[in-house]
User: Fold this.
Amino acid sequence: MRILAFDALRAVDERDAYANLVLPPLLRAAREKGGFDARDAALATELVYGTLRRQGTYDAVIAECADRPLREVDPPVLDVLSLGAHQLLGTRIPSHAAVSSTVELARVVLGDGRAKFVNAVLRRIARHDLDGWLDLVAPPYDEDPEDHLAVVHAHPRWVVSALWDALGGGRGGIEELLAADNERPAVTLAARPGRSTAAELRGTLDREGQEAEPGRWSPYAVRLTEGGEPGALDAVREGRAGVQDEGSQLVALALAAAPLDGPDRLWLDGCAGPGGKAALLAGLAAERGAALLAAEKQPHRAGLVAAALAGNPGPALTVAADGTRPAWRPGTFDRVLVDVPCTGLGALRRRPEARWRRRPEDLEGFGPLQRGLLGTALASVRPGGVVGYATCSPHLAETRAVVDDAVRRHGAVEHVDARPLLPGVPHLGDGPDVQLWPHLHGTDAMYLALLRRTA
Assistant:
């Protein structure tokens, strides 16, 4: 299982792959070979995700214990050291077992010479627990709050700063948020309207021996209490449900519930890939006799959207189209959703490697695209219709700044208060837009602004 974890980390490092895409096929292949049970899969998963989440902290510890700068340590060696550091500092595996098993891994994948280096470093790491090392490698909070939080909670400093600005408040809130980012989230499913209900879905899961519970906020949400492989579930394979964070479900539900002036016949998802929100919106539209057009620029992602919409009880069409260069006439739609590409800082629980991969300059690339997509959405909706601007990032440059620019540029636009459209959801701030948070809502940090075109 440690070799499997090492292979996953190398794929993330070498190919810029995402662990949630790399790990499942590796686990399936291991099971097919035999001798690999659910406990092995759980440990391998913990080793991969735990190591990625705490990479920055472990780098600081390894730097204290190595006899050379980290930049001079080969990446495969650093991956093995990080796996060992996580076993020593982030799990209940006994120290002797963590060291011996990691050194054996090093012999297999790196050779005897580098295994000796791994052994020496890990024995130094084993001298302290995580709290002891944090006392040694993290600067005092009073001297440098952001750097202290960055090391203790394993986030790049610029991410800590951005999240703190978006969250506001004092030390307690940001520490709770950063800690929540380091917790593995439950797998959440969305029962697709017209094809299943949450109650039916829980019944199906119970018959398959999968423990589940209702979601906290969405009436379509079902949470798997013991993890597992959602892609192997009958309801997911048959398209009656899909894997979807509850925050994403709430975004779609709020747009669908927003009051309109005039008819409610035609909806648009302008950035539909990979199809989760489109499937939920299509089911909701069908219940009202409305139709959905789902547009996605990338053809392969458009194919995923089409698969998600297959079996929808009402009319739903997928097109491969650039949302900034619409293939439809202005003023066509009654409701429009644009869940725009972004840095993904709101989904660090699910994609822990993204925190180390993103850079502040990425914001410069996303900004014009986000403004272009929102501008097209506002042009695509008719007067009296509503646009939902959503992003899985709480960064102010990707949320309020984009929306404020759009309102200034387009003029004939007014905010719709999104908070009443999420009944029962607490801690929604002063409005009119909504920012969800992992530590407050148990969801990804989804942002939603609703805008009505007035003329």
Summary: The CA atoms of residues 53 and 352 lie 5 Å apart. The chain has a mean pLDDT of 94. The chain has four domains: 2-130, 145-181, 187-243, 246-453. The two ends are 60 Å apart (CA to CA).
